[in-house]
Design a protein that fits this description.
Blueprint (H helix, E strand, L loop, with lengths): L13 H10 L18 H11 L22 H9 L19 H11 L23 H9 L19 H15 L1
Helix pairs in contact: 1-6, 2-3, 4-5
């Protein structure tokens, strides 16, 4: 039986979305929807990473970004991921909390959450659209090697495309399986 009215039992990643619901890692909206094809914003990724870490107490100052004010929604979680080096900002001092997070950056967040394990990426990319010189190459290859991401059926990763909520549910489930 579907938990969300916009996710049927036959939906792609339905079991991973159900797992996220049961664990509380990725939640739906009060209207009973999950919105599986909506992009995940960077502030929401901060919240999810805080949850997967067990929601440890947040101490100390808030984030150090010019576009995140103290008391702003998710400011504490943004400060928490920043302090742990899980999710960084840009060279202009911004975090861009409402910007969608890209698939390559999502791999980097999960790699860092795993403790940035020693890993040597392959010389030849496992994805048709990712070059070994590309930003987050190691992190994308690590995530692929651990089964956290499989990329698309056409052999691409689409690294700079924003990641949707259903895919984040799959990443979360697979991350838990790979590192739990």
């Amino acid at each position: 039986m579907a938990i969300y009215r916009d996710v049927s039992d036959s939906s792609m990643f339905a079991s991973e979305i159900t797992w996220c619901y049961n664990t509380g890692l990725l939640r739906g909206w009060p209207d009973g929807t999950f919105r599986p094809l909506s992009p995940v914003a960077r502030d929401a990724m901060a919240v999810v990473m805080h949850r997967i870490a067990g929601q440890p107490e947040i101490r100390g100052g808030g984030p150090n970004f010019s576009d995140v004010a103290p008391g702003q929604q998710f400011a504490a979680e943004i400060g928490w991921v920043q302090s742990r080096g899980l999710l960084n900002g840009w060279s202009d001092g911004t975090f861009r909390p409402l910007a969608p997070i890209a698939r390559d950056a999502t791999c980097a967040v999960f790699y860092r959450a795993a403790g940035s394990p020693g890993y040597t990426p392959p010389a030849a990319s496992p994805f048709r659209d990712v070059r070994p010189t590309q930003q987050f190459y190691t992190e994308m290859c690590w995530a692929q090697s651990r089964g956290i991401t499989t990329g698309y059926r056409d052999g691409t990763m689409r690294p700079t495309t924003s990641i949707n909520r259903d895919a984040v549910a799959a990443f979360l489930y697979r991350f838990d399986q790979a590192t739990g």
